[in-house]
Amino acid sequence: MTRLADPSQRPLRLARQRQAIDHGLVLAQPSLLAAIKLCISAAGFEADKQVYGELDIDAGHWSRILRGEAHFPVDKLAALMDLCGNDAPLIWLVHARGFDPTSLRRLETDVERELRAAREQLALLQAERETEHRLLRQLMGGRAA
After folding, report:
1. Between 66 and 2, where is the model more confident?
2. d(Cα 2, Cα 13) in Å, to the nearest integer?
């Protein structure tokens, strides 16, 4: 992490690209802590400091978390998964609560919803255009399309 002139500012980090993680591997983990460790490991960080520093977790507390002597802060779980680019802890937790993690679907974001609507509209316009072209060809040439 780079030092900034104003210590109250934090540098912007690039979000890791989403990565698929093998559900079987996640479900084989014996605990949520093991799933958290898998989440971090799958992300390929070179040092723990990259994780606890970004999540603003004290180094001593982080060590206790990894030894199972302290709990991972639940309010930072989503940030951890965003940082690591995978949902291993969520998949493990969903399964532990008796749900099938493969049947859960990610909700559309506003941007994804707008993109889907635009694509649907484009498909309708293209179909209308093709119909108009076919009718024009029939009228002008007396040919069937």
Report:
1. 66
2. 11
How is residue 108 written in tokens?
A: 């559309």
Closest alpha carbon to 82 in 2, 18, 24? 18
- Is there a contact between 59 and 52 (Cβ–Cβ < 8 Å)? yes
Is residue 21 left, alpha or beta, with left meaning phi > 0 and alpha meaning psi from -120 to 50?
beta
Listed by start position, the domains of the chain span 23-96, 107-145
Contact residues for 125 (Cβ-Cβ < 8 A; gap 6+) = none
How far apart CA 90 and CA 23 sit, in angstroms, is 11
- Under CATH, which architecture does the 23-96 domain have? Orthogonal Bundle (1.10)
Q: Say whether pTM exceeds 0.70.
A: no
pLDDT tens across 108-145, in order? 788 888 999 999 999 999 999 999 999 999 888 865 54
Q: Which of 22, 41, 75 is nearest to 51 (CA)?
A: 41
